[in-house]
Amino acid sequence: MKEAVVETVDCQVVGSRPTPHIIWKLGNQTLQGHTIRHRDNNVTVSRVKIQPFKNRTGLSLTCEASTPGIPEIVISDKLILNVQHEPQVSLRLGQNLDSLNIREGNDVYFVCEVQANPAVKVITWRFNGLEISKGVHRSGNNLIIQNLGRQWEGMFTCQAKNELGEGTSRELKLNIKYAPVCAEGQQQVYETMRGEQLAVSCLVHANPIILGFSGNSTTPRGPIT
What we know:
The chain is mainly β.
């Protein structure tokens, strides 16, 4: 059975007179069936329609028949539901990892949680929309990044695929904290006249935000005070 596709199931009872009383049950829930009597060959058919959902997998669909006047004798047959569906996917950080305190140099791992029937054949990992092909380790449904670098700050997703389709997780943002680092390519030498004011810029990358600056400068004759 496929999820959300309405299925018709028949229950056939032979050799009961008068017409048997037929009850349908899905788990503990009683369903309303439609009974058809074939008098020529003494066969009664009861028909029920069900709409499978994935949370009904493993439930018993039972047909119970009894003859009016003999209620103590009940015969039954059952069908165990196996509802197939596309993957439903969610993404989270591994246990004991605090998303608010991920630091440069740490080891981190992600868990791609998948519900699917039939089982998934392929799990694909993406970083900022692009498939991850190197710089990581994979183990089952886990993605592992060792000695985390700042280049991994961004959005992660995982995608799972089975015979019925594919599902993609919501994006998970990895926020990496790191010590201040001076940006490359900045001007390092400034020339000015004595007594003239000079504006010196300093571009720094950091996470969290920098609270203050300190520094020193030098001239050919020594440090400026």
